[in-house]
Specification:
By secondary structure, the protein is of the alpha/beta class. The protein has two domains: 144 residues, Aspartate Aminotransferase, domain 1; 239 residues, 3-Layer(aba) Sandwich (Aspartate Aminotransferase, domain 2). 41% of the residues lie in helices and 15% in strands. Strands 2-8-7-6-5-3-4 form a seven-stranded mixed sheet, with helices on both faces. Strands 9-10-13-12 form a four-stranded antiparallel sheet. A two-stranded parallel sheet has the order 1-11. Strand 9 and strand 10 form a beta hairpin. Helix 12 runs parallel beside helix 14. The chain is globular and about 65 Å long.
Length: 389
């Protein structure tokens, strides 16, 4: 097909480098997969049971575009209780088709052609597509592995220009697992406030923090809330990736803009998915169980990686990924990843898809069972040993 026939906003959207690995891995047998960012277990039974009951009782209809009122009330209470964010359920909370939909709609509600969007790097590559389709330009800010990939407020400030419209933060981070400390977030909030820039915070992995790390929501400060959109999701911690339900909180005029955009695209989130979200909110103890599982797998993966020469992991404070530097060869991350797949049928994600500064890294997901983690790392060891032989 001649691309000139397609809308420029679509042509500008890059394809996912993560999906490329996923699709390539599907052509092999017996793959030890550490590439996918999805829990290996299914949605917990209490959630499924409630949805089954409610669907049989008629929860199969359109809902308000902004989400069912009872769900928005529950989300508002959760935001106040767990995040310190005061958001009016009537005007400052909207239910979205996953965090993906939330981020796309939020960026398209704020970013115009010619606007710059500052994002600490490494970052989840889908941000690129969202910004590009809105006509904006991403301005990456490199982070230091010695600081756990936590962005520096000074570097963020240096990246802001008169064309900057938005700062995107992701804490805990995909791909690095970095958790931005409260004090650092406060400094970044001051930078954003002085510059008159909007802030979009992706808190998809908020419940998955380990050791002494503390998740903090920048919008818990009422003054910061007025120029901040905060995105949350049920996908990762509740193993609800297929339900496609997330939510955004923020100032009412932007939430209303997101509502209008959603009205013209998906109408509303499916009512059974909203029932699942309500059920999840009533089962907070599930979060502790999931966090414990992932923390155990995190420790296992870090321990196993000690036996892999030429691969240096940065210990993550959150999420369910390890970002590891390739030190045993000067090859780019994609070629290393393809060799891992071809020689040993092990799938990981090349760091280069998360930004140019990350091309000497690979991302490994520990959202899988312990046997797969052990087998994958053992296969990786053989490939990395071959680099030095």
């Amino acid at each position: 097909m001649d691309e000139s026939e397609l809308a420029g906003r679509i042509v500008r959207m890059p394809e996912s480098g993560i999906r490329e690995v996923f699709d390539e891995a599907a052509t092999y047998d017996d793959v030890a997969d550490l590439s996918i960012g999805e829990p290996d277990f299914t949605t917990p039974e209490p959630i499924v049971d409630r949805v089954d009951d409610r669907v049989r009782s008629g929860a199969t209809h359109y809902t308000p575009t902004q989400g069912r009122p009872d769900l928005r009330e529950a989300l508002s209470a959760k935001l106040e209780r767990e995040n310190g964010i005061s958001a009016d359920p009537e005007t400052e909370v909207i239910v979205t088709p996953g965090a993906m939909g939330a981020l796309f709609e939020a960026i398209h509600s704020l970013v115009d052609s010619g606007d710059e969007v500052v994002i600490p790097e490494p970052y989840w590559p889908n941000y690129d597509g969202h910004v590009a389709s809105a006509g904006g330009t991403v301005v990456p800010v490199e982070t230091d592995p010695e600081d756990g990939f936590v962005p520096s407020p000074e570097d963020v400030a240096d990246a802001i220009t008169p064309e900057t419209k938005l700062l995107v933060l992701n804490t805990p981070s995909n791909p690095t697992g970095a958790v931005i400390p409260p004090a650092t977030l406060e400094e970044i909030a001051a930078v954003v406030d002085r510059a008159g820039v909007w802030c979009l915070v992706d808190e998809t992995y908020e419940s998955l923090v380990y050791d002494d790390a503390e998740h903090h929501s920048i919008a818990s400060d009422p003054e910061t809330f007025d120029r901040t959109l905060t995105v949350h999701s049920f996908s990762k911690a509740y193993a609800m990736t297929g339900w496609r339900v997330g939510y955004v909180s923020g100032p009412s005029h932007v939430i209303d803009s997101i509502r209008v955009l959603q009205e013209h695209t998906v109408s509303c989130v499916a009512e059974p998915a909203q029932e699942a979200a309500l059920a999840a909110l009533s089962e907070p103890e599930l979060l502790d169980d999931v966090r414990e599982i992932f923390d155990r797998r995190r420790s296992l993966l870090l321990e196993e990686l000690e036996a892999v020469p030429g691969l240096s992991p940065v210990e993550p404070a959150g999420a369910f990924y390890v970002f590891a530097e390739i030190t045993g060869t000067d090859r780019d991350s994609r070629s290393v990843v393809m060799q891992l797949l071809e020689d040993e049928q092990v799938a990981v994600v090349p760091g280069g898809v998360f930004g140019d500064s990350a091309d000497s890294y690979v991302r490994l997901s520990y959202a899988t069972d312990e046997e797969t983690i052990r087998e994958a790392v053992d296969r990786m060891r053989r490939v990395f040993e071959s680099f030095s032989s």
